[in-house]
Design a protein that fits this description.
- By secondary structure, this protein is mainly alpha-helical.
- Helix content is 78%, strand content 5%.
- It has four helices and four strands.
- Strands 2-1-4-3 form a four-stranded mixed sheet.
- Strand 1 (204-208) and strand 2 (211-212) form a beta hairpin.
Amino acid sequence: MARKQQEEKEVAVEDKLRTLYHLQQKLSEIDEIKTLRGELPLEVADLEDEIIGLDTRIKKYEAELKETEVAISNQKQKAKDSALKIEKYKEQLDNVRNNREFDHLSKEIEFETLEIELSEKKVKEFTIESKALAEEIQKSKAFIGERKEDLAQKKEELDSIVSETKQQEEQLREEVKTIEADVEPRLLTAFKRIRKSARNGLAVVMIERGACGGCFNKIPPQKQMDIKIGKKIIVCEYCGRVMIDPELVGAE
C-alpha cells in the first residue's frame, strides 16, 4: 500500500514537471511574439522623435533665414540712406563759407562712404549665410521626407505583425490559463517568481551535459540522478530555475 502511494506520488511529481515545462513552452512562444513586436514599436517611436527633431530644426532654420533676410534689407536701406546723405553733403559743399564747414562736410561724406562699404560687406555676409540656411532647409526637408516614408513603412509592418500575431497570442494565452489551472497555486507562484527574475524568462530548463540549461553551471552527480528519477522538483542552486531531465518531456 505504501509502495503504491509512493508510485502515485512519483507520477504526480513527473506530471507536475511536465506541466511546468509545457507552460514554459507556451509562455516562451508568447515572449517570442512580444519580442518580434517589441522592437518595431521602439523603432517607430525613435523615428517619430527624429521627425519631430528635424521639424524643429527646420523651423529654427526658417526663423534664422527670415532674420537674415530682414538684416539684408536693413543694410541695403542703410546704404541708400547713407548715399542720400552723401548727395546732400556734396550739395552743401558748393555753399560752404569757411574751411571749418568744408572739413566737417568732408568728414561726414567720408563717414557715410565708410558706412556704405560696411553695409555692402554685411549684405554679402548675410547673403552667404542666407544661401547656406536655404540649402540646409532644403536638405532637411528632403531628409524628413525620407524618414516619414520609413516611418510609414515601419508602422505598416508593425500593424501587419500585430494583425498576424494577435489571434495566435490570444490562443496561447487561453492555453496558458488552462495549463495554469492544473498547477497547484504555491508551485505556480514560485514558477512565476522564478520566471520574472530570469533574464530570458525561462523558469524551467533541461539539464544539458551534466549542467543547468539556464546558467550552465555543473550539477553534482547525485543531483543529476535525482533529476533523472523525477522524485521531486529540484531547482538550480546557482540560478534558481527548475531543472528537468530531457527524457521526461521526450526531448533530445
